[in-house]
Structures are given as C-alpha cells and as structure tokens.
Amino acid sequence: MPEATRPYNFSAGPATLPEPVLRRAAQEMLDWHGSGMGVMEMSHRGREFVSIAEAAESDLRQLLGVPARFRILFMQGGGLAENAIVPMNLSRGGQVDVVVTGAWSQKSAREASRYADVQVAASNEADGHTTLPTPAGWRLRTGAAYVHLCSNETIHGVEFHQLPDLSALGCDAPLVVDCSSHVLSRPMDWSRVGLAFAGAQKNIGPAGLTLVFVREDLLGHALPICPSAFDYRTVADNGSMFNTPPTYAIYIAGLVFQWIRDEGGVAALEARNIEKARLLYDAIDGSGGFYVNRVAVDCRSRMNVPFFLHDDRLNDAFLAQARERGLLQLKGHKSVGGMRASIYNAMPLRGVQALVDHLRDFARCHG
Ligand SMILES: *Cc1c(COP(=O)(O)O)cnc(C)c1O
After folding, report:
1. Ligand 1 atom showing the smallest separation from residue 179 Cα
2. Which CATH number fits the domain that encloses residue 117?
3. Residue 232 above 70 pLDDT?
C-alpha cells in the first residue's frame, strides 16, 4: 500500500475513512468481483449483495464480540432518528431516565419526551459539560423503561471510559447507549448494555447507515405509532431488509470492518487511539496555556478533542496555516467555538503527529 498522499482530515463527521478502503471501493466501483455490476446497482436481495451484508454483519459481531443474545440491525435515519426510534420501541409510553452529558444526550432527552415521561437523571450542564456525573449520584426511577446515555459526546469531548453497572446501583432497567462517535474505537462491555446505536458517519463509514445492537428480549414492544420500518422487531425479523437498506453504505462499512481486522482488531486500534490521544492532549497541556482543553482529565474523549487558542483572534490564522500543511476541518463546533480535532480510528498516528507539529510551530510564531 503506497504512503498516504492526501491531507489529514479531522472532521467530526462525516469523517475520514481508511485510504485502503477508498482505494478498494474505487477499484470495485464498476464491477464488483466479476459480477458485471457495481454495488450501488445490485438488488439488495440478490446473492451478491446478500453475501456483502452477511459478511459485514458477521465481521462486526466478531470484532466487537457481540453476544448471540443481541441482534445487529442495519437501519437508516442516523443518531437523531434513533432518539425517537428508541423510545417508540422501548419506552412503552412510560418513564425514561436520561443522563445529560453534552449536546447529544440533551437532544436525546428532548426528543424522547415526545414519546415518554423523561427525567434528567444527572447532568453536567453546570460545569459546561466538562465532567461526567458519578453513577452513584444518578436519580434513577424504579419504574423506568430504560436509562439513556451518550458514551462519547462528540461536541463537548467527554467520554465514558467505563459504562455504569446499573444493576449495582439497584436499577434493573436496560441501558441504552448512543456510541455513534466511538463505536469500534474500544471494546464494548455488553454485560452492561441493553441497546446501543451508532450513526456510521463518524467511526464506521458513509452517512446513511445506522447500526443498532439490541438485546433480543427488548424486541416486540413498539408503540402503535411506530413506523413499521422503524420497529426493531420487524427490522430484525426481516434481516434488516424490511425495506431497501443503504446498500452502498453497508458495503463500505464492511470494507472498514475488514480493514480493522487487518489492523489487528479493536484491541490494537484501542492501543493506537490511546497513543494518539495522549500525544495530542500532551501537546495542548504542555503549551503553557497557549492551547486549552477544558475537560476533566479522566473523562477526556479519545476521539473528539475540542481545544481553544488563548486568543481567539488567532483562530483564522491557525486554521489557514493548518490547511496549508494539509490539516483539514479543525474548526470547532459552532456551539462551542475554538477548534476540534476528531481523531477516529481512520486517523493515523502520523496525522496526529502532523497536527502536534502545527500546534508547536504556530505557538512558537505567535506566543
Ligand atoms: C453525530 C451524532 C449524532 C447524530 O447523528 P445524525 O446521523 O446526524 O442523526 C448522534 N449522536 C452522536 C453521539 C453523534 O456524534
């Protein structure tokens, strides 16, 4: 495989993809495996695409060690649609407890309240979403249908490095996890999860595909208003082909799963992600205040690193010079400002090194 020649892309999503995956997709664009068809042109029920989808699902199950009691669903609508689809399927119109840790869980709470009686069980809003509330202090209701959290807040850059053990807190409700922006960056503790969902466009593949991992016993309880195409039972019973799935996105996701396996699996990627995050946070923390990350050290995200320049009048120059060095899409989310570097699985260590070099050089020139 030739050295990467493209710039490094730090977008939060849709985000950079592994270059070998893009090259392979380009090679197979007009003719997939001698079938005479590109993947976009195939019937989703034909044997060619069925083999692509089955391989993607089984590779994913193997990579994340997903137990047999979980169904894996390939859905559409992204994370925001799941904010409605989950309560329509799991709440039975009753109580839902949400742990608010940033912009995404806040949106989840708001959307769920259209279908259920939502309570904010804990919130880190008072400190600007820079810490994580300790599970022992969460207000969990006995009758709640489920507890929702976002395990990696893409905008605020806080990450649960351990999922809470709800049963140890005396709560037998299933835990619902929005893991959109760090799925496959680390192993998943399935013993603590009832349902997990992830939009693909952060750490997996193209936008348009949403992965749902749902425990078998949670299927079959959808509210009558739930569209059939979003009823987990219906989707599961039809092997994610109740309606036409996002075939090309599934194909690319499948290539990404093969790439992860070739790279040594999720544990190997996790080790690399730890190293990448350490390099970047060390550069920020060691800049003598030129750059600042405000998140408490023990809940900093390994995937999304928001940071600020000490003087935001330098922001435009910082971004322009980054672009000149081939470092793209570093501008922070509009609600937070500053910068954000998303360093997902597909961002190589040398990309983070190039960013760290820019941080150092820019601070030297403007410090
Ligand atoms: C991006 C993101 C979403 C929203 O995804 P859409 O596909 O735009 O609906 C939800 N949750 C998290 C954690 C995200 O990062």
Report:
1. 13
2. 3.40.640.10
3. yes
Active site residue: 59, 97, 178, 231, which one?
A: 178
Whole-number Å distance between alpha carbons of 320 and 297: 29
Structure tokens at 14: 């849709």
Last residue of a domain, one of 245, 262, 279: 262
Whether 331 is a known active-site residue: answer: no
CA distance 251 to 247: 6
- 212 three-class SS: strand
In angstroms, the Cα distances linking 363 to 137, 144, 307, 323 are 41, 50, 14, 16
pLDDT tens for 103-118 read 999 999 999 999 999 9
The pLDDT tens digits of the residues spanning 49-80 come to 999 999 999 999 999 999 999 999 999 999 99
Q: Does residue 51 sit in the same domain as residue 70? A: yes
Residues in the chain: 367
> Quick one: which H or E segment has residue 123?
strand 117-123
Count of C-beta atoms within a 10 Å radius of residue 273:
22
Q: Are strands 152-153 and 304-309 parallel, antiparallel or unpaired?
A: unpaired
Beta carbons of 11 and 331 less than 8 angstroms apart? no
* Residue 265 burial (C-beta neighbours within 10 Å; 0-12, 13-18, 19+): middle
Judgement on whether residues 35 and 122 belong to the same structural domain of the protein: yes
- Beta-strand relationship, 175-178 and 158-159: unpaired
Residue nearest to atom 3 of ligand 1 (CA): 79
List CB contacts of 204: < 8 A, sequence separation 6 or more. 183, 184, 198, 211, 253, 256
